[in-house]
Design brief:
The chain is an alpha/beta fold. The chain has a 6-stranded parallel sheet, with helices on both faces. Strands 7-8-9 form a 3-stranded antiparallel sheet, covered by helices on one side. Helix 6 packs across helix 7 and helix 9 packs antiparallel against helix 10. The longest helix has 16 residues. The chain is globular, with a radius of gyration of 19 Å. The structure holds adenosine monophosphate (AMP).
Length: 285
C-alpha cells in the first residue's frame, strides 16, 4: 500500500523512523506524469532500499516566465497507480505553499559553471530552481540514496557536484536513459507532440547514433560528431536546434578529443516542444 504524504513534517518523521529502524531510504524526485523512465528509477530504488519515497511536485521555480508551467501535464491518479505497481512505500505530493511558504524564496542554491552552458544557456535560472528544490527535498528526507535519470545528464552532473561540495548526506545514483522502442527518449513533454512531430522525433536519437557509430569506427574529433548530428537533423526543417555539444559528462566542459566520458548532448525544439537527448560516446547507450 502506498502512503500519500503532503507535509514536510510527516515526510521527515517517516524517513527518520525508517532510519532509526536501520532501514535504507531511497528517494526518487519527479514532477509526475510518470512514465517508464521514472519507473526505472523506482525499480532501482526498490532493489537497493528498504523504504522508497517518490516525490511528485511540479516545481514552479525551475520554469522560466515563458515556459510551460501552466500546461505541464499532470495525472496524480495515474501516478499513484504507477507507484503502487512499482511497490513504492511513500508518495510525497506537497502543495506549492507547503514547499514555498514564502514566495519568491529568499534563499536560492546556485551551482556555478556547470549551469551556464547547454540547457542553462536557453533556460536561465532553471538549474537554480532544480538545485533549490532538490536541496529542500534532501533536507526534508535526510540521509538517503537519491535516484536521477541520465536523460537529464546536465541535471545529474549539477546535483552530483552540489552534493559533493555541500557535503550533503546523500548518495546520488545515476540511472540509464529509457527510450521508446523507436528510440525517442521518454519524457513527460512527449505528450505535447503533434502526431506528425511524434513521427520525426526519433530522428534525434538516430542522429546521436550516427555520431556514436562514427566514434565506434575511430572518430575522435568532437566537432565531427557535432556536425554529424546537425547534418542529420537538418533534413527535417521542423527541428530547430538549440545546441549540439560534446562535453565531459562530469564537468560539462567542452572536450578537444572524444573519450569514454564524453557526452554528446542535444536540445531541439519541435514546434513549441523542447526535447533533450544524449549519448555517452564510447559507451553502448
Ligand atoms: P522529471 O519528472 O522530468 O523531472 O524527471 C524526474 C526524474 O526522472 C529525473 O531524474 C529524470 O532524469 C528522470 N527521467 C525522466 N525521463 C527519463 C528517461 N527517459 N529515462 C531515465 N530517466 C528519466
Amino acid at each position: 500500500m502506498v502512503e500519500i504524504v503532503e507535509t514536510k513534517l510527516a515526510l521527515r518523521a517517516r524517513a527518520d523512523a525508517a532510519r532509526a529502524a536501520g532501514q535504507r531510504v531511497g528517494l526518487v524526485p519527479t514532477m509526475g506524469f510518470l512514465h517508464e523512465g521514472h519507473r526505472s528509477l523506482m525499480q532501482a530504488a526498490r532493489r537497493a532500499c528498504d523504504v522508497v519515497i517518490v516525490t511528485i511536485f511540479v516545481n514552479p521555480m525551475q520554469f522560466g516566465p515563458n515556459e510551460d508551467l501552466d500546461r505541464y501535464p499532470r495525472d496524480l491518479d495515474g501516478d499513484l497507480d504507477a507507484c503502487r505497481a512499482e511497490g513504492v512505500d511513500i508518495v510525497f505530493a506537497p502543495s506549492i505553499r507547503e514547499m514555498y511558504p514564502r514566495e519568491p524564496s529568499t534563499t536560492v542554491v546556485h551551482v556555478a559553471e556547470l549551469t551556464t552552458g547547454l540547457c542553462g544557456e536557453s533556460r536561465p535560472g532553471h538549474f537554480d530552481g532544480v538545485t533549490t528544490i532538490v536541496t529542500k527535498l534532501f533536507a526534508i528526507t535526510g540521509p538517503c540514496h537519491a535516484y536521477f535519470g541520465r536523460k537529464d545528464a546536465q541535471q545529474l552532473a549539477v546535483i552530483t557536484r552540489m552534493v559533493d561540495e555541500l557535503d550533503l548526506p546523500v548518495t546520488v545514483v545515476g540511472c540509464p536513459l529509457v527510450r521508446e522502442p523507436d528510440g525517442l527518449a521518454l519524457s513527460s513533454r512527449n505528450a505535447y507532440l503533434s502526431a506528425e512531430h511524434r513521427t520525426i522525433a526519433p530522428q534525434i536519437h538516430a542522429a546521436l547514433c550516427l555520431a556514436a557509430d562514427a566514434v565506434a569506427a575511430g572518430e575522435t574529433d568532437p566537432r565531427r560528431a557535432v556536425d554529424i548530428v546537425r547534418a542529420h537533423l537538418r533534413q527535417w526543417p521542423d527541428f530547430s536546434i538549440d545546441y549540439v555539444a560534446c562535453v565531459d559528462s562530469a564537468t560539462l566542459q567542452a572536450v578537444d578529443q572524444i573519450d569514454a566520458d564524453t557526452l554528446l548532448a542535444v536540445a531541439v525544439r519541435l514546434g513549441s516542444t523542447r526535447l533533450i537527448d544524449n549519448v555517452l560516446l564510447g559507451a553502448s547507450s
